[in-house]
Amino acid sequence: MKNIAQIVCEHPFFHGLDGEFCDLVCGCARNVRFNPGDYLFHEGGDADYLYLIRYGQVTLEIAVPGKPSVRFQTLHDGDLVGVSWVLPPYHWAYDARAITLTRAIAMDARCLRKKCDDDPVLGYDVLKRVLPILTSRLHATQMQILDVYGAPEQPE
Amino acid sequence: MDNVDDSSVITREGLQCLLDALAERGYTVVGPTVRDEAIVYEELARIEALPAGWTDEQDGGHYRLKRRSDEALFGYAVGPHSWKRFLHPPKVSLWQATRHENELRFVPARDEPPRYAFIGVRACELAAIGIQDRVLMGDEYADPHYRSRREEAFLVALNCSEAGGTCFCDSMATGPDVKEGYDLVLTELLDDDNHLFLIRSGSEEGAEILAELPREPATETHQAAATAVVEKTRSQMGRSMPQIAIPALLMDNLEHPRWDEVADRCLSCSNCTMVCPTCFCTTVEDTSDLEGVTAERSRRWDSCFTSDFSYIHGGSVRNSTRSRYRQWMTHKLATWVDQFGTSGCVGCGRCITWCPVGIDITEEVRAIHDDVSSRDKE
Amino acid sequence: MSGDLMIPEPVRVLRRQQELATTWTLELESGPAGHRPFLPGQFNMLYIFGVGEVPISLSGDAGQTETLSHTVRAVGPVSNKLAALKPMDTVGLRGPFGVGWPMTAGEGADLLIVAGGLGLAPLRPAIYHVLRHRERYGRVILLYGTRSPDDILYAGQLEEWSKRPDVEVHITVDHAGGDWPGKIGVVPSLVPALDFDPEDAVAMVCGPEIMMRFTVNALRDAGVEDESIYLSMERNMKCALGHCGHCQFGSTFVCKDGPVLSFDRVRGLLSLKEF
Q: Does the beta-carbon distance from C236 to B286 stay under 8 Å?
C-alpha cells in the first residue's frame, strides 16, 4: 500500500515536485472519498480544501433558479478541483459534486498557503501549477460562450 | 512554324482583306470600335468601324476619347472591354432541367458558340488570355464553355503604338511587344507618307491567311520602324509596378494599416474585377418556371467585392471593404502565383482607369513597400 | 475526367433517417451507373430542382458503392429542402469532388480523429476506412465534442466504437443536464491528457472553424507537427472545380485543393480576421 507522500507526489498536479517540497505539502494532505451525488463544496463556501482527483468524476455546476443546475465542466483522474483557494477572499465560485465514486487527495488550503507563504520558491512552484489550469479553463469558457456548435443565426 | 519568317507589310486595304478572309473562313470578327464615348470590342465587318483617328486619355478614374492628329487605326490603349467577355462571357446558360412527377432530367444548354477572330489583341491581353487558359482549362477540370470558345479563336495580335496613362505592362513583363500565342501579329506603321501594317504569322492558319493577302515583303526599314514603335510605347508607360518581391511583401503585411486606408476610398463597386482581363470569378443562378416543371441554371460573372461572394451559413466571411480589397489584391498579385505560376496582373491598367475613385494598384503596392522599407531602416 | 462537370445527374433518395432535431442523413442511389466511388473526406454537390445547389460531405462507408450517404442540417433554403426529401424523390448530384483525409499518409501512425458537432459526418468515412483496415494504423483515438448530449451525432455508432478494444473514444459536451454521465468541457482540453507520441501522430480535425482553431492550438502545444494536422475547411462553393473563385483561401481553392488541407498550408491565415 502506498503512503500518502507517494500518492501526493505521484499525482499529476504535483508531478516533478522537488522531494523536500513534496514532504512539506504532504503534511497538508489526507485521502478522501465521495459517493455519487456528494458535494465537494458549494458556491460561496470557504475554500478551505482543494482536491486532487485520483479516481472518479466530478462536475462543476452553477445553480439556476427554477431550473436544473447548469453543469459546465467535468473533472477526472489527475485533475485539480477548485482554484479559489489560491487568492483571497478564498470563497468557492461554483458547486462541485461527485457523479461517480470519487477518490481524492484533500489538501488543507490554509496549511498549503502557509507553507507557500513561508517559502516563496515553493509558492511560486505551486502557482505555476495552478495558472495553466486557470488559463485553460478560461479558454474553454470562451469557447463554450461562443456556442460554436449552435445553429447558425442566418440561413445559408 | 517559328522558323518561317513571313513578315510582310499590308496597307489599310490589306487589313480589310484580312477581315474578309477571316469572315470567309467562318469567323465572327471582333475588334475595337467607338461606342458610348469609349473604345469597346464589337463585331466588325469593315475597317471603317475601327476607331480611326481616335485616342484615349486615361488616368485614375478618368477615361476620355480624344482626336488624334493622324488617322491611326490602333492609336489608343485598352478600353473597358477585354476579350474575356467573348471567351468567358458575362452570362452563360449551363443547363435546363425538367421535372415530371419524380423524374428529373438535365439537358445541357446547347449554345454553339461562334468561332471568334479577335483583331488587335494587345500583348497584355494575350498574357491575360494565357492566364485564363491556365485557370479555366489548365487541369482535368477544363471548363467546356471556355474551351470551346478558346480553342476555336483566331488571334490577330497587335504591338502597341500608344501606351495609356494607366499602362504598366512593361513592369509586369507582359508587353508592350507581343511575344507568343497569336495567329497573326500586326504593328501599325504610320508616317506622313505611308499607313502600313507590318504583319507576321505565329501559327499555320495565320500563315495560310497571310499568304492570301495582298502584301509586300517587309524590309529592314519596316522592321526597324516597328521596333521603334514598340520602344517608344515602352517609354510612355503611365504607371509602373515596383520591381520587388510582391507576393512576400503582401502576405507578410496582411494587417498593414494601408488596407484600412484603401478601404476608406474603395466603394466595393467591383468595377475593377469586371474590367480586369484575368478576373474569372462566377456565380450561378437558379431559376424555375411558375409551374415548377422547368428550371435553368446559368453562370454569370461575380466579384469578390460583393457581400454574397464569401457567404457560408451564418454570414459572409469577408464583411468589410478592407478584407475584400485585401482579398482581391493579395489574390491578384500574391497567391495567384502559388496557384497558377504567374502573377494574376498583366499591367493593362483597366482597374485604375475604371475605378470610380481612382485607386491605383501600383500605388497601393508602393505604399506598403515604402512604409515597410522605411521602418526596416529605422 | 471528361464531359461537362457542371451538369448534375439525377439520383433517387433511397432512405432518410433523422439524426438530430434538425439533422437528417439521406441515402442516395449511386447514380444510374450504380457506381460512384469516393474517398473519405470528399463531398458532392446536391441540387434541389429550381432552388439551388450546396456542397455536402459524404458521410457513409466508401467501402461500399451501392449508396451515397449525406448528413444534412436544415439551415437554409436548399438544405431545408434536402432534409425534407422522401424516398423515391430525385435530386441532382455532381461529384465526388475534392481531396480527402490522409488515409495513406496516416498509415503506420497513431490517428487522432477530432470532430466537433456535425464535423463528425465528413470524418465518418475515415473512421469506417480505419476500422476496415485496422491493422494499418497504430492507436486510434476519436475525440468528439458537441453542444449537449442531445446533439451527439451517430450516438449509437459512437457507443459501438467505444466498446471496441482497439478504438479510444472520448466524448465531451459543452453543457449537460443532471442525467449526463459523461464529460463536460471542450474538445481541445481533452488533448493534453491523451498521453500519445506527437511525433508519430496524424490528426484529422473537422468541426466549426473556431473549434478547429482551438484544437489545432492544443495539438501543436502537444507537439504534433503542422504537416501532420489535417483540417476540413468550409467556404462558399459554386462550382467545385476551382473555376468560380468563391472558395479561394490563400494559395488554395478549398473545393479542389481541399476541403482537407494540412495545417501548414493555412497557417497564419486561419486565425486572420475576415481572410
A: no
